[in-house]
Specification:
Blueprint (H helix, E strand, L loop, with lengths): L1 E4 L5 H9 L3 E4 L5 H7 L5 E4 L7 H5 L6 E4 L9 H6 L3 E4 L5 H16 L2 H9 L25 H10 L3
Parallel strand pairs: 1-2, 1-3, 3-4, 4-5
Helix pairs in contact: 5-7
């Protein structure tokens, strides 16, 4: 099966595809017209957020059997148009949940310690140590609005703080 990866994907992900016996072409940053010209050569298309899989694009996708979204959202894929052509559309809802949850925790820590403000101050050549002391998070309540995939992981990580 010949697969096109049209958005940035980690080399680890590309290696997984190749090790499973797929013929993988990586062509990122294509204009919609360029993608439309070559999509007919592929049975599979791996995307992230940048590539828009429209009904117009799918008209040229004569061999396409599957569109795989490396991530959760499918708002850039015309699912009804793909379904009409018998093209399976799938995503990876847990693919970046841990990364997003850990990012949320790191941003919370950065804000509690005034790291962005202190960084800006340092870049301006200042050393305002007392102004940016921040707060400890130990003993504080960590509120999570929505315990879905990401919120659940963030809440679990926060228990260790």
């Amino acid at each position: 099966m010949k697969v096109l990866v049209s958005d940035n994907l980690s080399q680890v992900g590309i290696d997984v595809l190749r090790k499973s016996g797929l013929e993988v072409d990586v062509k990122t940053g294509l204009a919609p017209e360029e993608l439309k010209e070559i999509i007919g050569q592929y049975e599979g298309l791996v995307i992230r957020s940048a590539t828009r899989v429209t009904a117009d694009l799918l008209e040229s996708a004569h061999r396409l059997k599957v569109v795989g979204r490396a991530g959760i959202g499918l708002d850039n894929v015309d699912i009804p148009a793909a379904s009409k052509k018998g093209i399976v559309v799938m995503n990876a809802p847990d693919g970046n949940a841990t990364t997003a949850a850990e990012h949320a925790i790191s941003m919370m820590m950065a804000l509690s310690r005034n790291i962005p403000q202190a960084c800006r101050s340092m870049k301006e050549g200042k050393w305002e140590k007392k102004k940016f002391m921040g707060r400890e998070v130990t003993g504080k309540t960590f509120g999570v609005i929505g315990i879905g995939r990401i919120g659940g992981i963030a809440a679990s990580r926060a228990q260790g703080l």
